Amino acid sequence: MPSKYRIRRIFKPIIYKIAKGFASAGLTPNQVTILALGLSLLASITISHGFPILYGVLVFITGLLDGVDGALAKITCSASPRGGILDSLSDRYSDFILILGFLFWREAANFYFLVPLNLWVIISLAGFIMVSYTRSKGEVYNLDLDCGVAGRSERLFILLVFSILYPLDARFPIYGLIIAGILANFTAFYRIAVALKKLHRSSITT
Q1: In the chain, fewer beta carbons within 10 Å around the N or the C end?
Q2: What is the pTM of this model?
């Protein structure tokens, strides 16, 4: 899936409206980045205490703010390498925190689907991290690897949807974690394949 088809494009108008409001309030992109990280921690606490719907809402807001800080940097012409590094590291910590909360959710303690919940958490963590790592590694070699079906916006959207379906079945939030984790790993492997293919082509033409 090319970047132009990402879910984040659907919310782009909302993101820029929020960014303009934050700009008027005098907030900086780095402050928004830290706010998003704080909300990730709050979301993790809510799922660990058994409030998956609130968790989904906070995940959605976190996803919006992930786009707002970049939009705010463009609006205020304050984009910088320092801010980019802070944003990237904050997103990785945010992913880790959002997933980790499932380990402390008592209602999910005995969950088992093919493997125990703690293993699904590890699988999801690996996928989330590798999707981002492959893209950043590609940038080192001037490769655009913003592709695949599960970019960050898609993963967070999956967590949101399945979390708010909790009243229908208490296992839905965990299914969302599993689906997001599996798709993340597939996306990471796909990006690796794309990178190797592009590098092979460039080696032939040079």
Answers
A1: C
A2: 0.88
